[in-house]
Amino acid sequence: MKARWDIFCSVVDNFGDIGVTWRLARQLAAEHACAVRLWVDDLRAFERMCPEVDVQLTQQWQEGVDVRHWPRNWTTTEPADVVIAAFACQLPHDYMEGMAQRERVPLWMNLDYLSAEEWVVGCHGLPSVKFKGVQKYFFFPGFGPGTGGLLRETGLVDRRQAFQRDPQAQQQFLQSLGVFPMAGTRLISLFAYENTGLASWLEVLAAQLQATHLLVPEGRILGDLQAWLEVEALAVGDVHRRGALTVQVLPFMRQEQYDRLLWCCDFNAVRGEDSFVRAQWAGRPLLWHIYRQDEDIHLDKLDAFLALYTEGLSPAAKAALIALWQAWNADGDMAESWTRLLEHWPQVTQHAEKWCLERGLQADLATALVQFYESWI
Predict the structure, then answer these.
(1) Using CA atoms, how far apart are residues 322 and 341, in angstroms rounded to an integer?
(2) Segments making up each domain of the chain, as ranges
(3) Which residues form a coiled coil (predicted)?
């Protein structure tokens, strides 16, 4: 019989948590024949990336996944064979009691946040707390051996490369979004948290000789964009031009569309975790707006990734890339670091593809989870 999996997702940051768990649930069902229940406490957030979801239903099937609303008042449910608490969310007490009462206790894992910090390798796969004899394990995604890998569907990199070799496919996709860039224009996608440093970046883009078309899916950065454009409001479909810069607001899109948007662009500014990983699979230079945490502990995670990601770059290119990322994550002035990065554009572009292909050599996250379960039983 197929193993039954329960994935619990408490939506904290609008889309990052549900973005990761939704991709994982679909891949486990489609590629590993797992029976998956995805428990989500905020179906409204889920609806943005899966419009077919009926937010009024407590149970429904979407793309082979049994989607359940995670209610505040929990009702008795038989626990699955594998239980994933995504990002350290607290399982319902009655559900935990049910795990302990099973004849064969389930494998219980905390799927943690993505990090390149060195301590992750030492903690990945280790036992954590127990609840009445049910052992929980740490499971860490990561960028290299000794971690759980990254979410990546089978054949993803091949599909991406084929799409990027097909100018007509890219044009058709962009036109489906109402995007008609001029020939020779640099395409940049922007998905970020609020950032007062945006204005300095936009100023330098507007002043450059090469034209830039900035594609901005709906999100929290629109307020800063609106202030720079000096307009009363921004809506989907709006197009504004200033100097060499064209700014266009796109609708919030489902994950498969967003992937293709990243594949079309020459540079991708992304936020959180799900879009961060997808930008790496795009094989293009990127800029990560990391989720801000108390006491700036997120900067340790940022620095750890930069140390790993910039290996193999020339000292000048490495310094330029690090300066850009640090300025962006400190709401700093982006003009000088962006200009410096452009001096090394061919190198950082080649490096992005090389990084992607190297990450693709390790097992993907869904496969690693299945292998962990098979070893455990």
Answers:
(1) 9
(2) 4-151+362-376, 156-359
(3) none
